[in-house]
Amino acid sequence: MPEQTPETADKLGPGRMVLVVGPSGAGKDTLMSALKDRLRDRKNIHFARRAITREADPEAEDHDTLERGEFDRLVSSGRVALSWEAHGLGYVIPETYDDIVRAGETVIANGSRRMLKRATEKYKNSIVLLITAPAEVLAERLAARGRESREDILKRLERATLEPEDVPGLVRIENTGTVEEGVDRMMNALGLN
Question: How far apart are CA 192 and CA 5, in angstroms?
Fold first, then answer.
C-alpha cells in the first residue's frame, strides 16, 4: 500500500476502490462480467452491486432498484459510498462497500466519469479503468443493441469524446480486441496477474 501522506491521512482506506468507466458501447459490462468470472476465487475482491432509479432490465446490468425519493434521502444523508446522476437516473454504490475498503480489500464498481473527482477525494487508493474504443466501433455497438434512436446514439457519441482530466490513477484500456485481451489488460492494470 502507498505510504500515508498529509493528503491521504483523512481518506478512506487501506483497501482500494476501482471504478470502471467509459462511454456506452465500450464494452464495460462485458469486460466486468468476464473479470468477475476470472476473479471468482479471490475472496478479497468484491464487485459492487449498484442501486439505480429504474426497474431491473434482464437485457442490461443486474442492479437493485431505488425509488427517486429513497435515492434523494440516501444521498442527502451521506449514506452512500458514491452516487451520481446521469441520463435522468440516480445511481448509488451502497455504503456497505466502504466497510470493505476499510477492511483493506478491493471493491470493483461500474462507475461514471461524473463521480471520479469525488472518488479521488474520498479514497486513499482509487484506480480508474477507462474502457474505450474508437467512435466508429462505439457507433456499431450502440446500433447493434437496438435500444436507442440514431439521435440518442449521436448524443452518446458526443459524450464519449469527453476524456476525464486530472484523474490520478487513471488507466486507459482500448477495448477493440477479444474479451480475454481486455480482461488481461484490466488484470495487469490492477496488478492481479
Answer: 25
